[in-house]
């Protein structure tokens, strides 16, 4: 057999070996990280939820997702074990680098209006709503003495055939 014919297969087998080896290393590193969890450690699940470890079982871990709220997760669902400083910065907002760039939105929309006096005037004249022009033109009304037959041929207004 020709070496040129076998070369692509050799490259493919070598690439598969390297990919499985690197994937296996990642799995071992993740398992080692999960084995270093202790109660009180902050974690992030693979779904992106931050919680505190409460209990560790063989295949499960009990997480406190909110004060007094516990949930049981598979150990494989833990995506990262976080350092205390990082967990507190993310969850509790502690740290010097935390700044709020977005404005604070009030609970009701009344304070969002620009002209507060206009709101008071609108409340006083609540019964007098201005008429709106919706762009509909008045159609000429038919004369009552006009005894012509309707377009559909029906005198009673029903649609259909004669």
Q: Overview of this structure, please?
A:
31% of the residues lie in helices and 18% in strands. The protein has 162 residues and is an alpha+beta fold. Among the domains are: 35 residues; 59 residues, SH3 type barrels, CATH 2.30.30. It has a five-stranded antiparallel β-sheet. The mean pLDDT is 75.
Task: For this entry, give a set of tags.
162 residues, alpha+beta, SH3 type barrels, 5-stranded antiparallel sheet, 5 strands, flat
In short:
The chain is an alpha+beta fold. The protein has helices at residues 3-35, 84-91, 116-124; strands at residues 42-45, 50-56, 60-66, 69-74, 78-82.
Number of strands: 5
The fraction of residues in strands falls at: 15-25%
Q: Indicate the radius of gyration in whole angstroms.
A: 36 Å
What is CATH's topology name of the domain at 37-95? SH3 type barrels
Could you name the CATH class of the domain at 37-95?
Mainly Beta
**CATH architecture annotation name of the domain at 37-95:** Roll
Major sheet: arrangement of strands: 4-3-2-1-5
End-to-end CA span: 88 Å
Low-pLDDT windows of residues: none
Major β-sheet, in short? 5 strands, antiparallel
Helix content: 25-40%
Main structural class: alpha+beta
Average pLDDT reading:
75
Shape: flat
């Amino acid at each position: 057999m020709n070496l040129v014919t076998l070369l692509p297969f050799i490259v493919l087998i070598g690439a598969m070996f390297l990919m499985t080896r690197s994937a296996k290393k990642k799995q071992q590193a993740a398992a080692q990280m999960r084995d270093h969890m202790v109660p009180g450690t902050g974690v992030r699940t693979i779904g992106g939820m931050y919680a505190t470890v409460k209990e560790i079982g063989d295949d499960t871990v009990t997480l406190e997702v909110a004060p007094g709220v516990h949930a049981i997760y598979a150990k494989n669902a833990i995506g990262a074990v976080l350092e205390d400083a990082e967990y507190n910065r993310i969850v509790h907002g502690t740290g010097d680098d935390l700044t709020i760039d977005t404005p604070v939105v009030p609970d009701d929309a009344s304070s969002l209006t620009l002209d507060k006096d206009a709101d008071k005037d609108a409340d006083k004249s609540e019964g007098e709503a201005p008429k709106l022009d919706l762009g509909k033109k008045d159609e000429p009304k038919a004369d009552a003495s006009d005894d012509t037959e309707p377009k559909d041929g029906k005198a009673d207004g029903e649609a259909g055939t004669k």
